Amino acid sequence: MSQKQLMQDSIDHHYYPVEEGVLINSLDIRLQEIIKRQHPDITEGAFISHKNLTYYRLLFLEEIIDKANRKNDYVREAVYDATKHQGYTALDVQDQLDRKITFGQRIADDVARFGGSWTFIITFICFMGVWMALNVMQPFGIAFDKYPFILLNLALSTLAAIQAPLIMMSQNRASDYDRLQAKNDYNVNKVSEEGIRLLHTKLDHLVQQDQSDLLEIQKLQTEMLASLTKQLVSMQEEQARLVGQIEKMRGSEENV
């Protein structure tokens, strides 16, 4: 049987079959750097066995994991630095205004609320109808405001003159509420936007960095499995060769 070609391992200087190793220049650049870091005298065309290469592949795997952990720590610290100064919390604007409301503002709100309801309209129409009916029909022989109802016009003018500023006061409070609500919405939207931006940063890091590292680890694992498969096949071939030699020797002994 033909003798297998042997090559000297540049790490332990033992001889191994060619199938049980690779040339260093065929490896990943970063893996080559790890080997040359510990053995600076190794040339690019040197041979290394799979047995010794496994150790450096594990070192390479540890460096990838350590690098990924440092990246994750950096992103985590960056997110923390960006969020630790965001102490704003959403406010209940209505509750904030209600705590500061004065007695006059409360009256203005009640007047505006009642003056803009159907209850006020129907009640006021009924009141004017009764007023005019009493002064026209005079069921008790008394007319305290004869036609053209000057006293009623004066009462209506007075009511309008008093009601208008009260309604304006209530509208001013509504404007203050809208302004504070808009400011609160702006701050909430600003915090939400910053949170979404940081979330995109994390996702980009996950897709671009972690996924790349994961693929590199899978590639390294595949190479290690392939080298183990080659070693297993080589051992099986060696075992078959030895079995064949033993059977040949037994046959020779039987013929003798």
Automatic annotation (TrEMBL):
Record InterPro entries: DUF1003 (IPR010406)
Regions crossing the membrane = 116-137, 149-169
One family from Pfam that matches here is DUF1003
Source domain of life: Bacteria
Q: Keyword set for this entry?
A: Membrane, Transmembrane, Transmembrane helix
**PANTHER family for this protein:** INTEGRAL MEMBRANE PROTEIN-RELATED, MEMBRANE PROTEIN
Q: What is this protein called?
A: Uncharacterized membrane protein
What is the organism of origin for this protein? Streptococcus equinus
